[in-house]
Amino acid sequence: MAHKLRMLGGVLLPLAFIITTGCSQGNSGSDTGAKPTDQLAPPEQTGILEVATRNGATTYYLDRNENPTGPEYSLVSQFAASKGWTVNWTQYDSTAAVLKALESGNTHLAAAGLTHLPSRTKKFTRGPAHTEIIEQLVCHRELRPMPRKPDSIASVGIAVTADSSYVETLNKLASEYEGITFSEDSSKTTEVLLSDVARQNIDCTVADSNIVQVMRRHFPHLEVAMNLTQGSNLGWYLPAGSDELAGAAREWMNSTEGDEAMGYVESRYYAYIGEFDFVDLRALNRRINDRLPGFINRFSEAEAATGMPADLLAALAYQESHWDPAAISPTGVRGIMMLTRNTAESLGVMNRLDPAASIDGGARYLADRHRRLPDTIPEPDRTFLALASYNIGRGHLLDARQLARELGKNPDSWDDMKEVLPLKADKRYYPSTRYGYARGYEPVHYVQRIRNYRDVIRAAFE
To answer: Residues 184, 301, 320, 442: which is the catalytic one?
Structure first.
């Protein structure tokens, strides 16, 4: 992938820019309710860390249960927990507003996907870096001519979010190549500008590679025309003079606990996102409009009956059948949830081609896989293992869990089980297992695809 967390070299997202968050709302630098500069006591005294952020896929957003989540949310929350502090989040609607909050001193810390720039470091106290990205020029797939080199950028219209690092990048290019112009938009985030490109309202924009990676799944017509930078660090900033707090943040980020936190962020938000598949994602987005409405209530009813999230069930069904209730495989599994005959009979499903019966049966089967796993397995690992069991069978999953123990791996960790499951197809290992050979690499890809699909589908259930 184009971005990485420092330690590597890091229910994702309904469209983040359309979510209304539950934290305090800033508005382009207007009064946010934070304490004035002369009253903002350090968190060591109050136990409260004031944090400025913005709503976005790679920063802070609410999941379908209205719980805050996101990479910046996870890192800041774990840093604050290590100090015994509570976090008070204030959301601003743009990078410019976040920087204005820093300048005013109305926040202890800005965690908003900010690029570390010399110009910013002159004004503010630089905190630790956590992610490396590349700035990319992103255009609509059908734009002609597609700018592939810097000297062809002048041929397209470009809009970027105001006061962003992208402004500095484009100004530098404009000083080297004639004719490059662009506009700054103070009212739109990078995610919104990417959606404008996808809808062909503008030719191109510039975005960080981690944002592009996430957004292309929602808007498959986005295309990376070229990389504009070699690599940049994203990290935290603090108001000028906040050296003590910045030092504490750096010390935590460089600690074992910080490394573990960044490993969690990588696994939770990025690692499962595979290579971009334009055809697959274009078809998914089309079927969300064409097919999903006919079944969405069935998935919600199945959630009420089993506790399995409706968007997860929808993603599972899409992986199984692309929401085709008449789907039949060469091996005899059939229906929207692709149940085997034996599984359907055990669940009391008389007609596997009846979508209502199939969705109900598939949901109950997944809930059973989930229930049979030890209660000690944390989420989301328990759900991922349940999905693997749905795919490969409980016996083979139990074999893989035993193999994990023998190899010194954690059978309750999906990250470890991703490495162990493929050994069920390795003749050095499977002869010693109870259930023998299995295509153990399949559930690894299976879970990855379902996680990807769920991220795209989730907005339909909000």
So the answer is: 320
